[in-house]
Amino acid sequence: MARAGLTKERLTRAGAELADEVGFEQVTVSELARRFGVKVASLYSHVKNSHDLKTRIALLALEEMADRGAAALAGRAGKDALAAFADVYRDYAREHPGRYTAARFRLDPEAAAASAGARHAQMMRAILRGYDLAEPDQTHAVRLLGSVFHGYVSLETAGSFSHSAPDSQESWSRIVDALDALLRTWPTA
Amino acid sequence: MARAGLTKERLTRAGAELADEVGFEQVTVSELARRFGVKVASLYSHVKNSHDLKTRIALLALEEMADRGAAALAGRAGKDALAAFADVYRDYAREHPGRYTAARFRLDPEAAAASAGARHAQMMRAILRGYDLAEPDQTHAVRLLGSVFHGYVSLETAGSFSHSAPDSQESWSRIVDALDALLRTWPTA
DNA sequence: GCATCTGCCTAATAGCTTTAGGCAAATAGA
DNA sequence: TCTATTTGCCTAAAGCTATTAGGCAGATGC
Question: HTH tetR-type domain location, by residue (chains A, B) (predicted)?
């Protein structure tokens, strides 16, 4: 029997593509096997189980977003950096909705530690270098930025902003403006 | 055979409790049947299918949150109202994580129209009465608030803030402070 | 008290997940 | 190059969930 050439990496990539097509929740070992023209059980030599597969897709998505974030931040500072980074999240979610959802998959501690999560946090802090925030306000601000980015993208993806004016793009720009203004005048306790 | 007294309502409530115990994704027609000491097929006289059940749980959660929100807003204005309303979301998610997730379940248009979604939007606008915002900035602000509330709660529930100082409660308070400050000095285009 | 309705049941189909064990293709060693 | 081992994909099987069809008996209406 000819071998299909399965590997963790190929399965993970194909899983990510599948997620973007049908949604992360609908990513299934069976469908993946079907796409490789292979029997389901065969995948279990490469991937521990369904959870493992999903974890790998999540890690891939986190890496990809971190890479894009790093590229966006290079040579930028202040509001410029903030806006570019914000767009990285939003654009990624629009281009790769399944992967984006995957990135929110709850990772177990080991996977989380090995993930690009730390890079994301570092980049947020790098953006805040353009603003004058000491601890613990810096941490509060990091959490706020993470919340806004994730929250907005998540609501937008769910279609919450698509049935009313103004355009979502406009709100997004104005929200980034607002965040910039807020960070410049952050109210200290 | 003694009847179990199944109804849509009881199934929905039990489904919501199940969601809080094991997670919304793990809510299953089978498990629900098990809890009622009844065969799986029996549920299908009361609920169209699994999707229908989840939709009902989502609608219940949205109602409950809207009710709490309304109670919190009564007699409050300005920052007071903002903080109380924010806490409604956060507290609800902490008390009822499964229901909270359910509330984010993607509803089809008919269900969405019949949901408490509109009440949520109205309450957000009511909060903004305490600030001086004209359209379209008011809509931008509503979207920002929704994003921050949902984003923060979602990240917090995922445990993103639980492994580092400062305390999540502190960040939450300071973020509400920051939002209040931002709304009072909202940057107009 | 009888007829109807309704609620829960049995039975059956179908899909996904996961484990165990087997054969053959690829690879490594002599 | 021939053999030995590893490794990749397969068959088989069990268990779970979802969903539909059809049946019997308890509840309800006249």
Answer: 5-65
